[in-house]
Amino acid sequence: MDTLENRLQKRIHVSLYALLFLTALLGLSVLLEGCTDKCEITNSYVYYEPEYTTVKDIRAQVALESPKEIKSTGKIYFKDGVLFVNEPGEGIHIIDNHDPAHPLAKSFLKIPGSYDLAIKGNTLYADSFVDLVAFDVSNIDAIHEVNRLEGVFKNYSVMGYVADPNCCVITGWKERRDVQVSNSDCGSFNHANREFILYNGGIALTSDAAATFSTKTAFAPGTGSGPGVGGSLARFTLSKDHLYMIDGSDIQVVNVASQQTPAIGTRSTVGWNIETLFPHKDNLFIGSTTGMIIMDISAPDALSVVANYAHVTSCDPVVVDDDYAYVTLRSGTSCNSTANQLEIIDIKNPADPRLVTTYPMTNPHGLGIDNKTLFICDGSDGLKAFDATDIMKVSSNLLAHYQNINARDVIPLDNVLMMIGDDGIFQYDYSNKADIKLLSQITVGAN
């Protein structure tokens, strides 16, 4: 009998697509090695064994808890005076932000395996490993689960191993010093590169990579009575009555016309390099490591590609304002690029996007634009604000530069900028472009 216990003992099968997705995130060059008599290991490896949790146990862990210290920040979302801050893999911090100068922590919504969120009306949608969970947030003091689409994320994987939505997912890693990685069986090395090997049902990393490896490492699949506002790094986004989600190489559509009873819709394969989503009118702008993809979403059940604007391989969030798309390209291990720049693209004709100009940056991450004020999170070079009234003079119209912070993503809305970074959550008043002021800061604690 195929019992749950037996399932847990079975090695989760490896998906080649999932591995390609993982290696793109890590910036590793995958070498598909044939099994020969000369298979050799030239590096010292550390072996980690996967730790499994059943989906039943994961689903039972969802709970509204007292506010807690924010240890790390992921995606941010703003809706009706409330700031929702994701703590990667753990859940969502609920912050009353009606007074941005004095934000008040209200609670922590524990959601194991949560990395992305979106809100329509009074319903919050969040991922939880392989599931999409819907919560009633009409009363932020009594948030509760109202629905769940089980196994909707078909491409969820952890370090190259695909989850089994009927059984369990990998939720951690245990170092096994008693297991020695050897080349006695070439077949054990499914795919190898300089730092990472899928080996014997677990993973093997070089000593250098193991030194910085977290045993909790896991990778997720990326107004008014309507939707709230998310940042530029969002992998979930809402347009009218539909929720669009990145799931590996696919865009999964969910019909949320009936907010608390979401229904699974169309799934469209786009490519493993897709990273971020931004809706504008009847189009969905998708940031990828190889360019910006524009999809027509006027018929949510029949998505179609309008245009594919290509650039060098690089991490690539995108935001749109009127006739222009603003794209940041950055270098780094996970981006496999040396480019660090802002690109401004003419999208008056979405079927024919044209590069207008580029500006050099330090290491740009998320960005946002509101009323011609462009904000760029330039990594270790901090937050930069520009007057983008004249797109040909953006770099010469620097309004403010906040250094000594590592900025990652922003939400500019109604003259208040909400920014997350490695150092915390910062909010700024930009009602006077000539005098942008810091309103408040929430410190992020140590791990």
Helix and strand arrangement:
Elements: H1 4-9, H2 16-26, E1 45-54, H3 55-60, E2 63-65, E3 76-79, E4 82-87, E5 91-96, E6 104-110, E7 117-120, E8 123-128, E9 131-136, E10 144-149, E11 157-158, E12 161-162, E13 168-175, E14 189-192, E15 196-199, E16 202-206, H4 207-211, E17 229-230, E18 236-239, E19 242-247, E20 250-255, E21 263-269, E22 274-280, E23 283-288, E24 291-296, E25 304-310, E26 318-321, E27 324-329, E28 341-346, E29 354-360, E30 367-370, E31 373-377, E32 383-387, E33 398-402, E34 407-413, E35 416-421, E36 424-429, E37 437-443
Describe this structure in words.
With 447 residues, the protein is mainly beta. It is built from four helices and 37 strands. The radius of gyration is 22 Å and the shape is globular. 44% of the residues are buried.
